[in-house]
Amino acid sequence: MAGAERSTGGVVLARTLRALGVTEVFALHGGHLDAFLVACPDEGIRLTDTRHEATAGHAAEAYQRATGKIGVAVITAGPGFANALTAMVDAWLDAQAVLFIAGSPPLREVATNPLQGGFDQVAMAAPVTKWSHRITNVERIPDLVDKAVRLALSGRPGPVFLEAPIDVMFAPVADGEIALPAQPALVGRPAPPPEAVDAILGLVAKAERPAIVVGGGALSARCSELLGDFASLTGTPVLASSKANGALPADHPMNAGAAGGLAAAAMGAKQPADLVILIGARQGLFLGGRSGQVVPDRARLVQVDIDGAEIGRLRAPDIAVTADAGEALAALLAAAKGRAWPDRGAWIGLLRQLRAAGQRAFKDAPTMTPAGLIHPFHAARAVGEALDPDTAIAYDGGEAPAWFQPFGRSPGPGLYLGNGYLGTLGVGQGYAIGLARARPGKPVAVIMGDGAAGFHIAEFDTMARHGLPILTVVFNNAAWGMSQHGQELVFGKQNLAAVKLAPSAYHTVAQGFGCRGEEITRFEDIAPAVRAAQGSGGPACLNILTDPDIAHPVTAMMVGRLDAEDEIPIPYYENIPVR
Questions:
Q1: 58-383-387 Cα angle (round to 5)
Q2: Is the pLDDT of residue 396 over 50?
Q3: Residue 146 · residue 177 · CB < 8 Å
Q4: 32 is catalytic
Q5: Cα 217–Cα 221–Cα 227 angle in degrees, nearest 5
């Protein structure tokens, strides 16, 4: 059309994302993307360019979890896509709504051995996304992106993938031929049937030691107020899997801490829960697997999940409800009002007492070990107590986060997150970057083991270039701690392999990239260093030297029974029966 204003596919993509409310994109440059990248500033989209594509994906995950908005990661073709595949799988297993967009060689160059081509990105992404599709012409960009965003956010959240070939990104189109989408239409969320609500409340009324366990589904539903009101009204304590940190404020009277507290109640205090209500919490690794420790085998079980495939995964529930966590809690709260509920103060008090016990487990141990290194328990305690209470927290590693967990506090839903079902190491820097973009100007900390710190260490550069107030705390025991201690338990200390590291100067690396850095070798220096680093308002790294010979009890739990004659012990999973 003569005289008509024309735009490229990259401009159309930027305008489409902005029309859908996207203002933050995590990316790593590639020539396939240039038509889009240069268009973003004019559309009010901020680009946070990372040093590795996996980091861009992890940052988009954390941004989505913290804000409830779609996370967007844009990466280049070939190796860029392959690098981001880990983040796609991570988002898939943890049910995070992230839109991944990757470039590709021109459509006309298919099967010609082009640069960064030669394999099917769409097919490769399909098993780990809710939808994977190739855009083949500019005019389809708006409606395909709109569909992708709606799919990612609806039902069980999850990642989606769009491939945008370079000839589509650079192709011109008349502006009059493009119809931009509006904000995604509201999608109805499934609610529980009234008879299920009545049945659940009947079980709650009869139970002596009921417990609500929330997971990522409750966090995605943004239902913290409903959860707190229902728990308070019925006297039912709330515990959280690691996917739901911050679902209730740390000081909420019904917050009983981590789901593992139910195992402590059953095994230590001999008071197992007699009713467990799973709300958006998946049976499996984070709820004790088949052990029956977190969800006692004799307890009545209610399971509420938006994904029907999750219900009954390890055990058939007594009541199963396929519904959104928020809709379920709203219905339960409405029906519970006006009814009399028993006083369960003693049960709640026990769980909160057990929660506090985790903070005292090693309190009598010396702060410095005979080796002249800091005890990891005291290092974690000092960091946790010194952090600004408004700090969003990412964690990454094996034993290092386990030492820190009793002292970590989430400033809100989705603001305390770390390694998920994939068990990916190296997520911490990306998560921290995403949290920083989700809360501009507010403090963020990433708690890491020294093994995890090395995966994406160049992201110190990203933090410095973008001026992100991220404090990186490295618990440096010069070892893959959980791996070393697991090998020691199974094979003996004389048979260690591939588990030793050097006491590397991570703080110096951070300084080289433009961040503040400090090595800490004395316990009394930790708290002042944390406060000074956060007070600087910029990125910083504290390299805290801890003792590698101190094993966290979680490792022994992960390894499992070693004394069973009829079983072969294997780390992290159930032992193998000898038949």
A1: 75
A2: yes
A3: no
A4: yes
A5: 90
Q: In 3-state terms, what secondary structure has residue 104?
A: strand
Q: Flag whether the pTM goes above 0.85.
A: yes
The candidate with the shortest Cα–Cα distance to 402, out of 320, 342, 486, 336, is: 486
Which whole-number Å values give the CA distances from 536 to 390, 458, 516, 523, in the listed order? 15, 21, 9, 21
Question: Quick check: 103 and 76 in contact, CB under 8 A?
Answer: yes
Is residue 423 among the annotated active site residues?
Answer: yes
Percent of the chain predicted with pLDDT > 70:
98
Structure tokens at 450: 């020294």
Average pLDDT over residues 164-180: 91
Query: Which pLDDT does position 342 carry in this prediction?
Result: 94
Q: Do the beta carbons of residue 57 and residue 420 sit within 8 Å?
A: no
Rounded to whole angstroms, the Cα distance separating 540 from 542 reads 7
Q: Which of 64, 116, 484, 534 is catalytic?
A: 116
Distances (CA, A) of 213 to 16, 93, 227, 299: 39, 19, 11, 13
User: Of these residues, 9, 52, 53, 398, which one is catalytic?
Assistant: 53
Nearest CA-CA partner of 557 in 212, 353, 239, 263? 263
Whether the per-residue pLDDT at 186 is higher than 70: the answer is no
Catalytic entry in 423, 512, 535, 537: 423
**Backbone torsions φ then ψ of 30, nearest 5 degrees:** -160, 145
Return d(Cα 301, Cα 31) in angstroms, integer. Answer: 53
In the predicted structure, residue 408 carries a pLDDT above the cut 50? yes
Identify the structural domains of the chain with CATH numbers, from first to last. Answer: 6-177 (3.40.50.970), 194-357 (3.40.50.1220), 376-558 (3.40.50.970)
